[in-house]
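Please, structure for the following, as tokens.
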Amino acid sequence: MIGVVVADDQALIRAGFAALVGSAPDMHVVGEAADGEQAYRAVQECRPDVVLMDIRMPGTDGLTATQLITGDPALTGVRVLVLTTFESDEYVLAALRSGASGFLGKGVEPAELLDAIRVVAAGDALLSPRATRSLISRFLAAPADGGAATVSAELDVLTEREREVVALVAKGLTNDDIAAQLFVSPLTAKTHANRAMTKLGARDRAQLVVIAYQAGLVRAGGPD
């Protein structure tokens, strides 16, 4: 069972998400929170697999709470899926750089939200290829001066095939997509991605995407 914490300052929305999660046979709500501070405490107490995190909340906001959760060594297994009505590109970028494993607008279909929770819990993909291609590929590449060179040097630890896989992950491809493009099995594609994450110290594929763009391995607006 996938344990989920729901964090949203609006009680009605929070209850709706909780009811939706509770209706799925493979997941259950283990905690709720009305602000970022409560969310962080709930995660510490309940140790969920996934946190549904609103961005705009009073006091400690969702991005700060995400940073607290993803930066806590005791919570390395917890994934954060950001949900917001503010689907601006700046929020996507901020959420991913805060350590979130995914980003969805609150207008998402119920089935898509449940699928996203499963995807993030498994760590197999950031979100849908559509989401990563339309948002991340255009707006994630904005590293600070000098930062790219440092990250690029870190990529030297990767094999050529691992670099290929990381580049494809950054373009939003799933393991199946990568396998088809490189003529390998999906398990092999996943193994290469996991090895790259281990070598680069990335907690999940979301961070792998950030690293790929910051290092210039993939260019914003570049060809698919």
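The CA atoms of residues 178 and 184 lie 8 Å apart. Strands lie at 2-7, 27-33, 50-54, 79-84, 102-105.
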